[in-house]
Amino acid sequence: MERISDICCTVGESPTWSTAESAWYWVDIPAKRVWRLDGVSGAARFWTSTEMVACVAAKADGGLIAGMETGIFSLELGEAEAVVQTRLAAPAAGLGEGMRFNDGRCDRQGRFWSGTMFMDMSAARAVGELYRYDAVRGISAPVVSELLTQNGLAFSPDGRTMYLSDSHPARRMVWAFDYDIADGVPSNRRVFADMSTHVGRPDGAAIDSDGCYWICGNDGGCVLRFTPDGKLDRRIDVPMLKPAMCAFGGKDLDTLMITSIVSGKPEDAEWGGAVALLRPGVQGVAETPFGL
């Protein structure tokens, strides 16, 4: 496992590999930062937004699409430190006080998906909702509702299965859905993995070329791999207590980036908030840019 310099993110989330740029992107949510790591030179830098950026995905025409505090935005990253942000859409009912978008990514057809959450997790308010956005139809009505802490979005290699988790301590569940790739509509929701029988809370996820689902075990210090039929077949222990999300990237898509969250616990002082790379021995699936 290789640590990316001395970078420490308070809440490191949403790693994604841009094949077009040969670069990694991720965010530090409370710091309002978008990070980039050049996959060739190893140079790292960040940009700062005016509001929290919770998740990002590459756009086919350059830049990023992001789920933020007040909606879904297009982000342009230039030489200046400040992000140039343009709001694309927001839920019809708006985002209430204390809410923001959380986990998000594109499906295999280039539509952007992201969900909302109430930021004070101790309140355990099931007001989170999952939305779909594309440039033609705009933002959807809520597709999934009554979520505590939306997380774990992923799509199978053929795009016909969608995964979603709720990482709140009171829920700890991963679901699978049948996914209509033509219309972008999930159906037949069922339990894929009940994390109450495993280690950690199901945070951010990735899919490998075998169709297996990788999920970060937040609070459990591990990354778990589930086969397409929901069987746990691998566990990788990591030095950070709160791994937040993982993503495949690198030239051959055989490197796994793991972001993490500062726990504040003494035993986590060295690695909490770190961003790390490892080679798990399998390849991932390239992400489809938004709008491709």
TrEMBL record:
The organism's superkingdom is given as Bacteria
Q: Which Pfam families match?
A: SGL
Q: Which GO terms describe its molecular function?
A: calcium ion binding; gluconolactonase activity
Database matches in PANTHER family: REGUCALCIN
One of the GO BP terms on file: L-ascorbic acid biosynthetic process
Q: Which residues form a coiled coil?
A: none
**Would you tell me the protein name for this molecule?**
SMP-30/gluconolactonase/LRE family protein
| Natural source organism | Duganella violaceipulchra
InterPro entries, A to Z: SGL
